[in-house]
């Protein structure tokens, strides 16, 4: 992890009519950091991420991603990031090889580079027996690992992962996090949203959103010490109670 901030957010806000989905959040993410963006479903995590990746315009505030402004340089942001959506994004009616080839072309990679990337993925993920199978026939865990690998094809500076392990078994979740560690070790910044508080323990730092606001942010160990909690779920429950007093 370096001292360079690759994501900078100052009072970023998103309104839908009278509804305040994201309420003046501020934070920074360093290069090579695994940053957990935590909260219950509906807390505003995905809305905030969509502003950062350039597909939703903020209502107010400031933010830059990989050095580019979220208002005026969204296309440059998209070229410099990877993104794995909450809903599986690859094409079920294409084979694994065809999906990698297709997305490599979308990212502007040459044919020779795509071929080399396929070789690397086959070796790393042990895809020898499924490389020419339809993606739709694969188990969800395989789909998720493949989708993450495809988001890294163009060697982005930052990868945004939106609830990447939803619906998969605990063993696959652990394997997925090993892939995240490997990418971060190579210098890729990981920005991950999740409502699984146990997963947050794997992050370098976490923020916890409640009702559109960031109510706490620090290293997992420090947050547990601060709130005298044995795990981050207890921290979250305390913050939720404080934010919604009876």
Automatic annotation (TrEMBL):
It is a multi-pass membrane protein. GO terms for cellular component: membrane. InterPro entries: AAA+_ATPase, ABC_transporter-like_ATP-bd, P-loop_NTPase. Keywords: ATP-binding, Membrane, Nucleotide-binding, Transmembrane, Transmembrane helix, Transport. Signal peptide: none annotated. It is found in: Membrane. GO terms for molecular function: ATP binding; ATP hydrolysis activity. SUPFAM superfamilies: P-loop containing nucleoside triphosphate hydrolases (SSF52540). Residues 7-236 form the ABC transporter domain. This is ABC transporter domain-containing protein.
């Amino acid at each position: 992890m370096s001292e360079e901030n690759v994501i900078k957010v100052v009072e970023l806000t998103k309104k839908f009519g009278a509804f305040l989905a994201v309420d003046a959040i501020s934070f920074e993410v360093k290069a090579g950091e695994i940053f957990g963006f935590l909260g219950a479903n509906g807390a505003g995590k995905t809305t905030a991420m969509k502003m950062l990746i350039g597909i939703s315009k903020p209502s107010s505030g400031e933010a830059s991603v990989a050095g580019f402004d979220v208002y005026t340089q969204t296309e440059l942001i998209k070229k410099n990031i990877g993104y794995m959506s909450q809903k599986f994004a690859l094409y079920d009616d294409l084979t694994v090889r065809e999906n990698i080839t297709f997305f490599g072309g979308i990212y502007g990679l040459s044919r020779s580079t795509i071929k080399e990337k396929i070789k690397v993925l086959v070796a790393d993920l042990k895809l020898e027996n499924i490389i020419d199978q339809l993606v739709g026939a694969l188990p969800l865990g395989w789909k998720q690992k493949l989708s993450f690998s495809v988001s890294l094809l163009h060697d982005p500076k930052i990868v945004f992962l939106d609830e990447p392990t939803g619906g998969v078994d605990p063993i696959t979740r652990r394997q997925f996090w090993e892939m995240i560690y490997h990418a971060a070790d190579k210098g890729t910044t990981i920005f991950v949203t999740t409502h699984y508080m146990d997963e947050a323990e794997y992050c370098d730092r976490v923020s916890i959103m409640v009702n559109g606001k960031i109510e706490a942010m620090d290293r997992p160990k420090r947050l547990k010490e601060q709130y005298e909690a044995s795990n981050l779920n207890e921290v979250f429950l305390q913050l939720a109670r404080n934010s919604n007093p009876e």
